[in-house]
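Design request, tokens follow.
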């Protein structure tokens, strides 16, 4: 996933450059043993910058899932404690939650750039999309497409939250073989159960790794597209706050 292209957008570059300027001022004030008291414009830039940092971190987290799903440890110490199903479920659940968190941060970013004044805990698609300041904007049109596209992800998130774990029939099958291999009484059959769990897990992982990789690329594209709708508003808001 090409995460760098997100910060190469005009909006990404603007916020980065503005943040660098504020960071220099903060260091200069530190040397004078003074605390930087940000202006209205600087406070606005810092609010936007904080969300961009969070978005960047979440994109990193999505990429980590790709790495971890390709890195199941086969060490003896690992095998004594953890099963294939545990490893897959944990990293896939974290990936789902990070996808939803990323979408939420996109909404919070729009809230900050447009200076809508909605509290973070109340930010959702409905409160942002219904705000009059977003009427007939490219940002709103794109948010509608994103919200529709993430319905399946939200359904998976709800499963994790309400059932306290992610499960589907194929992962349940892997978990069953893991369980009987570890806890069954017939040690002679243990080897065949371990083999079945490993084989099913590898087949299952092929599908999940493809799903994660493809969706990660889409999320980078989504963030890039959103950023491309925000640069004009960002400039407008800065000029307004200076005036």
């Amino acid at each position: 996933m090409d995460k760098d292209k997100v910060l190469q957008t005009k909006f990404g570059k603007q916020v980065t450059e503005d943040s660098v300027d504020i960071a220099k001022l903060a260091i200069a004030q530190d040397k004078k043993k003074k605390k930087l008291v940000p202006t209205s414009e600087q406070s606005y830039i810092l609010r936007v910058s904080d969300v961009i940092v969070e978005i960047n971190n979440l994109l990193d987290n999505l990429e980590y899932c790709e790495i971890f799903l390709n890195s199941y440890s086969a060490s003896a110490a690992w095998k004594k404690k953890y099963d294939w199903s545990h490893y897959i479920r944990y990293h896939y659940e974290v990936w789902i939650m990070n996808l939803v968190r990323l979408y939420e941060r996109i909404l919070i970013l729009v809230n900050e750039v447009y200076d809508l004044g909605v509290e973070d805990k109340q930010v959702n698609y409905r409160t942002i999309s219904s705000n009059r300041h977003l009427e007939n904007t490219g940002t709103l049109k794109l948010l509608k497409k994103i919200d529709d596209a993430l319905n399946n992800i939200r359904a998976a998130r709800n499963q994790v939250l309400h059932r306290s774990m992610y499960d589907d029939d194929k992962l349940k099958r892997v978990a069953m073989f893991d369980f009987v291999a570890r806890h069954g009484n017939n040690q002679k059959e243990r080897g065949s159960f371990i083999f079945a769990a490993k084989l099913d897990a590898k087949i299952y992982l092929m599908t999940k790794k493809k799903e994660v990789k493809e969706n990660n690329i889409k999320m980078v594209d989504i963030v890039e597209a959103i950023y491309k709708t925000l640069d004009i508003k960002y400039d407008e808001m800065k000029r307004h706050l200076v005036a």
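Comment from the thread starter after seeing the answer: thanks! The two ends are 40 Å apart (CA to CA).
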